[in-house]
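Pilot study result, target chain (484 residues):
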Amino acid sequence: MNLHQKIQHLAQNKSLLRSLKPKTIASIFVASALLYTLPARALTSYLGINNGTGYNTEPEYVDRSIQHTKDLNLEVARMGMDGVGGFTEGAGFNWSARDAAIDRYLNAGLKIHLVLSARMHVNRDGNYEQWKANFRYFARNVMMRYKGKISYYIIDNEPDLDYGNGKMSAQECVDMTRIAYETAKSIDPNIKIESPPVMGIESGLLDEMLDAGIAEVSDYIGLHAYGGQISENRLGHPWRVLESRGIRKPLAISESGSINEYCNGSQFETEDCRRRWFAYFGQQLKRFGYDHALLFDLDGHDSWAVAPGFNPTKTYQQIKDLSLNEALSNADFESDNNVETGWIPFDSNDVWILEGASPYVSFVRNDNSGAHGGGGYVKLNNGDASPDTPVSVRRIVGQLPKGQKVKIGAWVYVNGKASATLKALGYDYRNGDAEISATSTKKNGWEYLEIEVPISRYWTVIELGTSGTGNSGDYVKWDDVSID
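Predicted structure:
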């Protein structure tokens, strides 16, 4: 039984599904797992976190959740609309505890992404029309109550899993999302609706929902991504699903996380591996042009918590130090490169995951005769890698002009049989699988490559790459990257 079959077999058990442990670390992290901790800040609302204030509205608990969310430099929290009543059309509501929790978040300067569940928050009546009426009544009352306070709603949660009251079909998802969408737009056109987030990046229910018209009644296509689902060959899957149907909608991830059990090694190694998962996830989000993501989770759910019982872990600190909007720096490789904060090696070697080093990448300084300018450059030893193995360094470049084009240039030196490619990735938030590239044509001499990139948000990911040749002595050097 392969991993995909196991996932399908375990779909009824969310905890077991997420704790599946692949045979090798590489199968989780694909081309690499990265020590990626950029300097803190500049997150704005790009990242957020799930916490337990959907079902726990005790003031002390809410305040501690807020404190840790802000300490993590996050500005968004996901909250369920639990405990307010209104289960059936015409039923009464009790808003006091929920009002107090929401006001606490808003007064702290945090935004709320609110879950409206057609299965958990209203009575799933055997009469389908009545079930829809129940949900319409609930959604309208919630949106009217929090008009001007909450402007982002997530419809249900993992409809392809059964949480005790059945799964939801694609048509049911579309019908309930349509109710929320039309209600929202009639109350406040600025309210945004995220489609029912499926349990995983490759869920077949997403395909069915798209065919049934979910994109027509959603502002964002909702997804969840755990463990190996953030790998290079998988995180781009939803974009290809949309493209095959001629649909262009921004993608959002409302749950994302990892646990130590995903990793091999000692307790120390698995803790660092988990920490690096979140770092790698941050880079992958930008590489694939995802609109935003919420992490899972703050204080509960045992192994999933980044601060169980509000006690911060290494992963907590990793998230706190993330910054995904840093301007380009060390473009000439003259400064020491910290692989946790600068140019990040990207390859398929397991050693990099646990030890933070790539056998194919070296950052050279003080080699005036070997550099294009100055004495620094990055060297990709592709002769040591198996044929066609991707070898590269990447970095997120933020603070770019939204809606404009930028020119990205770099100097490259190719020695041996390989070629080298300059790429821009993640620049199109409606087609995160797109890339723009320029490939070398010259051997044994410096060549300038340049690409023009349209920036749809405020970032792109630059890749300086090559492919393995298996021929000892082959290498590629990159130097003097520029953005105009």
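One observation from the pilot: The longest helix spans residues 267-287. A full batch analysis is planned for the follow-on phase.
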